[in-house]
Design a protein that fits this description.
The protein has about 250 residues and is mostly helical. The chain is built from ten helices and six strands, in the order ααββαααααββαββαα. The strands form three sheets. The chain has a two-stranded antiparallel ribbon with strand order 1-2. The longest helix is centred in the middle third of the chain and has 26 residues. It is globular and about 55 Å long.
């Protein structure tokens, strides 16, 4: 179950790319695609696992049949706990186990490809620079960024970015901005939100990408991660991210 595109060479960068792709797939399952993920984890089915693949696709499926498996396997039976706890707690539990699985796969490749001490340290540092799946899913990553931003930027308001849009540079401007002011606008936004993380994939803010903020939880998302284009955003009066859109569901 390598999902296609599994690492075949011995580069630390390629192993990290494999890790990041699998991680992004898992994060999508637990955030953007959480409705579909929840439905697929039927407690009446057999032991199910959450897989993330290098191409950022996720899948809920039965564990590999071969023994030993080609790769380390994710936590088994995540569906059985679904209805026995609060949804947010269940998602956090799956996230923790997913973090463990992602590290085990990365270091499996490290051992398989004969990484030395320096390579293993470099791989760990690259992985450690990203928020964990647990931090993204529970909002801890966003909280840490908020605390860091507030201490660095004082009382700067998020509203300045929420009311801006330019289709070419991904900054949402609903009020007219003079052409000569656009460059300064980007610099201000990058300074203020350079440490902002996407609520779906956990990657950093960049001014060359379109972002949108949820008006309910105030998390920021890459447009591509939540399937919102600049053209579509123009017609949205109040944007709700996938998690907030599904929060009205009453679950045990």
């Amino acid at each position: 179950m390598d999902g296609g595109g599994a690492v075949h060479n011995r580069s630390v960068e390629d192993v990290f790319s494999d890790f990041r792709g699998r991680r992004n797939g898992v994060i999508k399952a637990l955030t953007v695609d959480v409705e579909e993920f929840y439905q697929q984890c039927d407690p009446d089915k057999e032991n199910l696992c959450l897989y993330g693949f290098p191409n950022e696709v996720w899948e809920v499926n039965l564990p590999a049949e071969e023994v030993p498996p080609e790769l380390p396997e994710p936590a088994l039976g995540i569906n059985f706990a679904r209805d026995g706890m609060q949804e947010r707690d269940w998602l956090a539990l799956v996230a923790v186990h997913s973090d463990s699985w992602l590290l085990s796969v990365a270091y499996y490749f490290g051992a398989r490809f004969g990484f030395d001490k320096a390579d293993r340290r470099r791989l760990f540092n690259m992985i450690n620079d990203l928020p964990t799946v647990f931090e993204v899913v529970t909002g801890l990553a966003k909280k840490q960024v908020k605390e860091k931003s507030s201490s660095a930027n004082g009382s700067k308001s998020k509203s300045s970015l929420k009311t801006r849009e330019t289709e070419t540079q991904g900054v949402y401007v609903r009020q007219p901005v003079a052409r000569e002011d656009v460059e300064a606008l980007y610099e201000e936004d990058e300074d203020e939100h350079g440490d902002t993380l996407c609520g779906a994939c956990g990657e950093n803010y960049a001014t060359d990408e379109f972002w949108i903020c949820c008006d309910i939880c105030e998390k920021w998302f890459h447009g591509k991660c939540v399937r919102i284009t600049p053209a579509k955003a123009v017609h949205i009066n109040q944007y709700k991210c996938p998690s907030c859109s599904s929060s009205k569901r009453s679950r045990i």
